[in-house]
């Protein structure tokens, strides 16, 4: 991690020294090159100051209402992670205690997600949910192919059923591993996958159905239980045995606490694998994810590997190899520090703040709620009254950025791309007071925009926002 910046008195002295040293160096070099190596390196304190100054214009991470990725941790957790910054997670023989913490985290998640036997669940830490999704999808494809070949059937045209609201990593999975994506388009009153639409697209070549617990577009949970029941009925009618992978990138750390009675996880026998992001609502700084399979029987031996050149026989499942152990340690810190009660309190607090904001914004004309955070992720989306034609949500997003707030505006996926929305993500570190400040800034900007008589020039737009 970056060294702590000096105190103010030290900073003034350092600035003076660096300014003088830069002037001296400019006698030999007119400027420090940006796109090639310097002929001579810079002292560490000077290199630090140059990079530090360059980064000052970055957005304030605490004011970033766009990202699901954590931007705050307790100082004790940061200290632990700094102590482990040099540990490579794959070197389990050299760092057996860190490897033990990874195993403990996996067992905790298996228990949290109601694995029939948490000790028999198999999984791995990853760099994030995208890697977890790739592994989950790859196992679905492998198991489907094994079943097809064992029955003497061709296995060259696999497909995967999911909603158009899936995260972009699933598009990547289908492209990378030659799987046909069967995307269910959204409708005005349905911004997610449902059971009926999923079943319509399943056939003998379907490797699985992806259900999302916490959509990136509006924070909603997809009805995993209803999809599972519909697949049960499909198997009774046709004999097709289609498995479910749950993409719980955000909801894997939320649903167990704000919807504890809802069966979305390994309580459903058809759910064979689940991924989540520790660096989202797991409360860890990026990047760490997790993927679990309900037991070892559903993870083919052909996808498990061993290496021995690190000093011992090391099993490896992940797609990446070298990756930091610090975030795994940070995850275990959170499990110890928060416990079940602490996570429950955190999720309840975030939901209360999100509901407070959603209810207040819904009362501000001409904003309209697309989703409400009650009982789902502490995330919600807003759109404009269609009668407003002189400005768009992109203009409001741009105005908020002038105050430091990063509130994304984007268009919805296929079949609803004509709708542009704002989305607000409430995470740990975002307080009730900060929420009130944002509400005041939005109200002030809406008042100014209401005076606009002619259409404003187009505001910056990133198009479809799938983060």
Could you walk me through the main structural features you see in this protein, from its secondary elements to its overall organization?
The chain is about 40% helix and about 15% strand. With about 475 residues, the chain is α/β, with parallel strands linked by helices. It has three domains: about 10-60, no CATH class; about 80-335, Type I PLP-dependent aspartate aminotransferase-like (Major domain) (Aspartate Aminotransferase, domain 2, 3-Layer(aba) Sandwich), CATH 3.40.640; about 350-450, Aspartate Aminotransferase, domain 1 (Alpha-Beta Complex). The strands form three sheets. Strands 1-7-6-5-4-2-3 form a seven-stranded mixed beta sheet, sandwiched between helices. A four-stranded antiparallel beta sheet has the order 10-11-13-12. Helix 3 packs antiparallel against helix 10 and helix 4 (about 95-110) runs parallel beside helix 10 (about 325-360). The longest helix has about 35 residues, at about 325-360.
Query: Separation of termini?
Result: 25 Å
Number of strands: 13
Q: Could you report the average pLDDT, rounded to the nearest whole number?
A: 89
> What's the order of the H and E elements?
HHHHEHEHEHEHEHEEEEHEEHEEH
CATH topology category name of the largest domain: Aspartate Aminotransferase, domain 2
Structural class: alpha/beta
CATH class of the largest domain: Alpha Beta
What is the annotated CATH architecture of the largest domain? 3-Layer(aba) Sandwich
The CATH superfamily of the largest domain bears the name: Type I PLP-dependent aspartate aminotransferase-like (Major domain)
Overall helicity: 25-40%
């Amino acid at each position: 991690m970056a060294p702590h910046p000096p105190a103010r008195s030290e900073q003034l002295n350092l600035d003076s020294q660096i300014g003088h040293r830069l002037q001296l160096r400019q006698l030999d070099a007119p400027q420090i090159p940006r796109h090639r190596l310097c002929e001579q390196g810079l002292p560490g304190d000077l290199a630090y100051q140059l990079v530090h100054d360059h980064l000052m214009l970055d957005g304030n991470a605490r004011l970033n209402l766009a990202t699901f990725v954590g931007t705050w941790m307790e100082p004790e957790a940061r200290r632990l992670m700094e102590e482990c910054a040099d540990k490579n997670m794959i070197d389990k023989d050299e760092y057996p205690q860190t490897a033990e913490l990874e195993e403990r985290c996996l067992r905790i998640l298996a228990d949290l997600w109601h694995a029939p036997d948490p000790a028999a669940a198999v999984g791995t830490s990853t760099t994030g949910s995208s890697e977890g999704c790739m592994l989950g999808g790859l196992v679905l494809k492998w198991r489907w192919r094994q079943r097809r070949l064992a029955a003497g059937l061709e296995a060259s045209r696999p497909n995967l059923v999911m909603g158009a609201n899936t995260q972009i990593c699933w598009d990547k999975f289908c492209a990378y591993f030659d799987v046909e994506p069967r995307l269910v388009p959204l409708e005005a009153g349905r911004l997610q996958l449902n059971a009926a639409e999923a079943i319509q697209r399943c056939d003998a070549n379907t490797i699985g159905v992806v259900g999302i617990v916490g959509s990136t577009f509006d924070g909603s949970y997809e009805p995993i239980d209803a999809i599972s029941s519909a697949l049960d009925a499909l198997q009774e009618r046709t004999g097709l045995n289609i498995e479910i992978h749950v993409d719980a990138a955000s909801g894997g750390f939320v649903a167990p606490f704000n919807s504890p009675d809802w069966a979305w996880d390994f309580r459903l026998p058809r759910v064979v694998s689940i991924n989540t992001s520790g660096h989202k609502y797991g409360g860890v700084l990026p990047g760490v994810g997790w993927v679990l399979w309900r037991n070892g029987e559903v993870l083919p031996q052909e996808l498990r590997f061993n290496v021995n050149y690190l000093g011992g026989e090391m099993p490896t499942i992940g797609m990446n190899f070298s990756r930091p152990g610090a975030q795994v340690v940070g995850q275990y810190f959170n499990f110890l520090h928060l416990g079940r009660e602490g996570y429950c309190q955190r999720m309840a607090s975030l939901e209360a703040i999100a509901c407070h904001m959603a209810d207040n914004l819904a009362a501000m004309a001409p904003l309209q709620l697309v989703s409400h955070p009650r009982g789902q992720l502490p995330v919600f989306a807003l759109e404009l009254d269609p009668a407003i034609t002189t400005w768009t949500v992109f203009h409001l997003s741009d105005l908020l950025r002038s105050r430091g707030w990063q509130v994304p505006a984007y268009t919805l996926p296929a079949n609803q791309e004509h709708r542009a929305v704002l989305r607000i993500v409430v995470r740990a570190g975002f307080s009730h007071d900060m929420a009130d400040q944002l509400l005041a800034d939005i109200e002030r900007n809406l008042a100014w925009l209401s005076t606009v008589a002619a259409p404003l020039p187009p505001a910056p737009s990133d198009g479809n926002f799938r983060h």
